[in-house]
Amino acid sequence: xxxxxxxxxxxxxxxxxxxxxxxxxxxxxxxxxxxxxxxxxxxxxxxxxxxxxxxxxxxxxxxxxxxxxxxxxxxxxxxxxxxxxxxxxxxxxxxxxxxxxxxxxxxxxxxxxxxxxxxxxxxxxxxxxxxxxxxxxxxxxxxxxxxxxxxxxxxxxxxxxxxxxxxxxxxxxxxxxxxxxxxxxxxxxxxxxxxxxxxxxxxxxxx
Length: 207
Description:
Blueprint lengths: L1 E5 L2 E6 L5 E3 L2 E3 L3 H4 L2 H6 L2 E7 L9 E2 L4 E4 L4 E4 L4 E2 L5 E2 L2 H5 L12 E3 L2 H18 L2 H10 L5 H23 L3 H8 L2 E2 L5 E2 L12
Parallel strand pairs: 5-8
Antiparallel strand pairs: 1-2, 1-5, 3-4, 6-9, 7-8, 10-11, 12-13
Helix pairs in contact: 4-6
């Protein structure tokens, strides 16, 4: 990615090499492949240097748009301060209604946007449903034919639900976004061995 700098300000971002008109001169796209950095700089074209130090995991944060800054030698693309995603649901308010933003099928107090914790627990429920679906046929067979459910199957399904409840509680009780991140973060010990994440994992059925 390149930027066009005019009067010490970034005036255009060039995502793909293309013909450029700078001043009264038309330059072919091939200058991006054939010219040196100093030759491009001489006509105001600089390769963009990316600074991702403020960029955070979009699972947990909302990043700003990138801004472009020219310091006299290079153009840098950087992010502002990321905002943690809201943990709780946001609701439609009377102000939304007064401003004409309330959809026809919604009322004041209805959910406007689901919060991060809701979505994390929703994902967990999907994972639980997928795990339980592997043994649902035992339940169906028991219902239709009264064939006994093996004790190992019942034990496993109960263990999945118990762990689900523990995980949901941990998510719900997380005090802030870093605490949520920590629940899902795997670490390695001094020997490079991956350690369990604090949230833990759902039990799986031994084959």
